[in-house]
């Protein structure tokens, strides 16, 4: 991506609600991994979608267990909570949500 397109994209990101801190985090990943801003935004979008699907599956499984009175529901609930915390830590949810909304709106 040339400098003009990069500057335009950064301006668009700022206009769509990305803060200076968000853009600095993106810049750090771009410089560290040698990817473009657009490919990084697409990767964040993929992570958000995968995290959402996993979370939905876990909640559906939990609901089925609750409906059918599974005897180990409490231990499964603890495990599910632990899983969700790990997924939340591994996926920058706020940034991924902004990336998802930006790509949905702009592309």
Structural commentary:
The chain has one domain (3-106). Helix content is 84%, strand content 0%. The protein has helices spanning 3-15, 20-33, 37-67, 73-90, 93-106. It is elongated and about 55 Å long. The model has no long low-confidence stretch (mean pLDDT 90). With 107 residues, it is mainly α. α3 crosses α5. The two termini are 16 Å apart. Keywords: Membrane, Transmembrane, Transmembrane helix. The chain crosses the membrane at residues 48-68, 74-95.
Give a brief rundown of this model.
The protein has helices spanning 3-15, 20-33, 37-67, 73-90, 93-106. It is an all-alpha fold.
Question: Keywords for this structure?
Answer:
107 residues, mainly alpha, 5 helices, 84% helix, 0% strand, elongated, transmembrane, transmembrane helix, membrane
Break the fold down into its secondary structure elements and pairings.
Elements: H1 3-15, H2 20-33, H3 37-67, H4 73-90, H5 93-106
Helix pairs in contact: 3-4, 3-5
Strand content: under 5%
- Total number of distinct structural domains: 1
Order of helices and strands: HHHHH
How would you sum up the major sheet?
none
Count of extended strands: 0
Tell me, briefly, the overall form: elongated
Low-confidence residue ranges: none
Keywords: Membrane, Transmembrane, Transmembrane helix
Transmembrane segments: 48-68, 74-95
